[in-house]
Each structure stands twice: as structure tokens, then as C-alpha cells.
Write a structure and sequence with these properties.
transferase, Aminotransferase_I/II_large, 2 domains, seven-stranded mixed β-sheet
Length: 363
């Protein structure tokens, strides 16, 4: 062990040393269907207009610290209720980290259903918080009895509810979400990363509950490279969170690009509509592939499916060998045994995935 390794082992917190960093697969030349990105870029004419806008950004100056102009556009585009406060982050991951630091650090508890977004656990541990889970119900729905029992047992400072849920894709019953919020004393975070693909949103109701905030992101609607996350809630929460937000956390180029994109929202909406249409086609075709044992309804831009026990790794590797990269969920949670997740791509990408999947399952 080197001297640097020895010192790191001595001083880095044990709970951090016990973690594994979030792994992102290198796609190489593969069709990339593993990260829930929107597969359609902007039309070429918009790209030129966007680049022209960026030429006017004064990158030798710090960005607008409060992103005031962008916040105004987001309020209109997302239908944020009047009176709600907004705070922006470098992706919604930064906002989750901020929430944990401000509310749950120092040994308090973070609660989430399982299976759900892997970063809830990782970021709770990084903040020095305890982490607890309660099981999702049938078809991965929100089990309010299990949630209430967990709230009673753990008294969490923060409870995360992903609607729709990642990695299962299903939307949550909003009355069940409201019931959990009513039962919780701490903060309840409704994570709506996939709001654009969902049938309903909790955002219009956020001010009805004094302990609820709603998270959103622009990453899933075609702007993943910008890393723009949004938190909406009562101003009392936003005021406190602002004390922990790093200054200038959203760069000038990201702000200018997001402003431009929202001025041309029709292009984003068109891409989302195309993804939703392809999702329905893929959802109809996927169960017909021999060897696919189960699929789940999705209100996201991905589909989760199950293959025979013990075959998920081989299927994943078979797809990679045939030039398609998806996400292997098998091994991440007992209820996801045999499961894989595929992002909805362009029609030709989805066709290539279906063909590669059939070949991998037949091998």
C-alpha cells in the first residue's frame, strides 16, 4: 500500500470507502440504449441558431448566480404553481445531494421504496445519512401500508418517491403519494425525472403539502448534456436549501442553452412525442420475442423486461457482442432478478435491438 493509499484509508469516512462509485458503461461503437437519453438531436437549423447564441455568452464572467431568466422560462414551461419556490442544480443528482446535506446529514435517515433509483442510497451514504427501504407493492406500485410502517420505524428526515419509478418504469398512484406525504413528518421528495413521459404529475399539488418538494430534470427530454435539474416547493424549503447550494453551480453555457431550448420547446415536445410513440411500438413487440418472460408498463422513456433465471448476464453480453448496449438490472435487487432495461431509441435502433435480443436469447 502506498503512502497516499494508507492516508486515504485512514481519513476517508468508512461508509464512503464501503461504497462503489456509480458505473457508466463505455459504449464504444454500440447503439447506446442504456442511459434513458432522448435519441433525437435538435434539427440542424436549430443547432446553428444555438451555436450563434453561445457566441454571445461572456464565459470570462461568472454565470447568473440565481439563473433568474431560466427559472422564469421553467415556471412557464413546467406549469410550476404560483407561489412555489425554485432552485436549480447541476442535474437532479446535485439536488438530491443538496437535500441530503441540508436535511439528512449527520446520522439522520433517508427512506425510499425498493427497487428504486440507485443514487438515493449512494448519495445518502455520501452525506453521512442512514438509509432505509420499504418494499414496493404488486407490479411495483406504492404500498402505503409498508410506507407507513417504515415511516413509523425509521422517522426519516427525507423520503424519496420516484414517479414514475426508475428502474421499473411504472407511474405511482398520486393518492398514495399524497397519503405518504400526510403520514411523514420529514420531507417527502417526489422525483419526477420522467415527467414528460408520464400520464400525471404531483407538481400541481406541491403547495398542498407543507413537507413536499418535486424534482424534475431536462435530461430526459433531449438536454442530458446540459445537466439542468429543477426543484419546486414551498419557499421555506428553498430558502434553507439555498444556504447549501454552491454558488454559480449552473454554468453560463448550460443556462444559455437551456433558455434557447425552452424558446424552441416545440422541438423538444416533438422528440418526446416520437419517443412515446416508439415506446408503445417497442412495448408491443418486446413480449413477442421468444425468451422474454415478462415486461412491465412504462410511463418513462425506457422498458424493463425479464428473461429466464440465470440468463440476464449472457443476454446482456450477447447484445453487446451484436452492437447494442442496454442496462443489466439483474443483481441490483432480488425483485429484479433476470431483468434488463432498454432505453427507447430511434426506430432503426429499436429494430436493431429487437433483432439482437432475439439472436442473443436464441444462442
Amino acid at each position: 500500500m502506498s503512502e497516499a493509499e494508507r492516508r486515504a484509508a485512514r481519513w476517508v469516512r468508512p461508509e464512503v470507502q464501503a461504497l462503489q462509485a456509480y458505473q457508466v458503461a463505455e459504449p464504444g461503437d454500440a447503439i447506446k440504449l442504456d442511459a434513458m437519453e432522448c435519441p433525437w438531436p435538435w434539427p440542424g437549423a436549430l443547432v446553428e441558431q444555438w451555436l450563434e447564441r453561445l457566441r454571445g455568452v461572456a464565459v470570462h464572467r461568472y454565470p447568473d448566480p440565481g439563473a433568474g431568466r431560466l427559472k422564469g422560462q421553467l415556471r412557464e414551461a413546467m406549469g410550476v404553481p404560483d407561489g412555489a419556490g425554485l432552485i436549480l442544480g447541476n442535474g437532479s443528482d446535485e439536488l438530491i445531494q443538496l437535500l441530503n446535506l441540508a436535511v439528512a446529514a449527520g446520522g439522520r435517515t433517508v427512506l425510499a421504496p425498493a427497487p428504486s433509483f440507485a443514487m438515493y442510497r449512494l448519495l445518502a451514504a455520501a452525506a453521512g445519512a442512514e438509509y432505509a427501504e420499504f418494499p414496493l407493492g404488486e407490479a411495483f406500485g406504492l404500498d402505503t401500508a409498508a410506507a407507513r410502517a417504515a415511516l413509523e420505524a425509521h422517522a426519516p428526515a427525507v423520503t424519496y418517491l420516484a414517479h414514475p419509478n426508475n428502474p421499473t418504469g411504472n407511474g405511482l398512484d398520486l393518492e398514495a403519494v399524497a397519503a405518504v406525504a400526510e403520514a411523514a413528518d420529514g420531507l417527502v421528495v417526489v422525483d419526477e425525472a420522467y415527467y414528460a413521459y408520464a400520464e400525471a404529475s404531483f407538481l400541481p399539488r406541491v403547495l398542498e403539502h407543507p413537507n413536499v418538494v418535486v424534482l424534475r430534470t431536462l435530461s430526459k427530454v433531449g438536454l442530458a448534456g446540459l445537466r439542468v435539474g429543477v426543484l419546486a416547493g414551498h419557499p421555506a424549503w428553498v430558502r434553507e436549501l439555498e444556504k447549501c447550494r454552491l454558488p454559480y453551480n449552473l454554468g453560463s453555457l448550460a443556462q444559455a442553452s437551456a433558455e434557447f431550448a425552452l424558446e424552441h420547446r416545440a422541438a423538444l415536445d416533438t422528440a418526446v412525442a416520437r419517443v412515446r410513440a416508439e415506446r408503445e411500438r417497442l412495448a408491443a413487440e418486446l413480449p413477442r420475442v421468444p425468451g422474454v418472460e415478462a415486461t412491465w408498463p412504462s410511463e418513462t422513456n425506457f422498458l424493463t423486461f425479464r428473461v429466464a433465471a440465470g440468463r440476464a448476464q449472457a443476454v446482456y453480453e450477447g447484445l453487446r457482442a451484436r452492437g447494442v448496449l442496454i442496462k443489466r438490472l439483474d443483481g441490483s435487487h432480488p425483485r429484479l432478478a433476470g431483468c434488463l432495461r432498454v432505453t427507447v431509441g430511434r426506430p432503426e435502433e429499436n429494430d436493431a435491438f429487437l433483432a439482437a435480443l432475439a439472436a442473443a436469447l436464441a444462442a
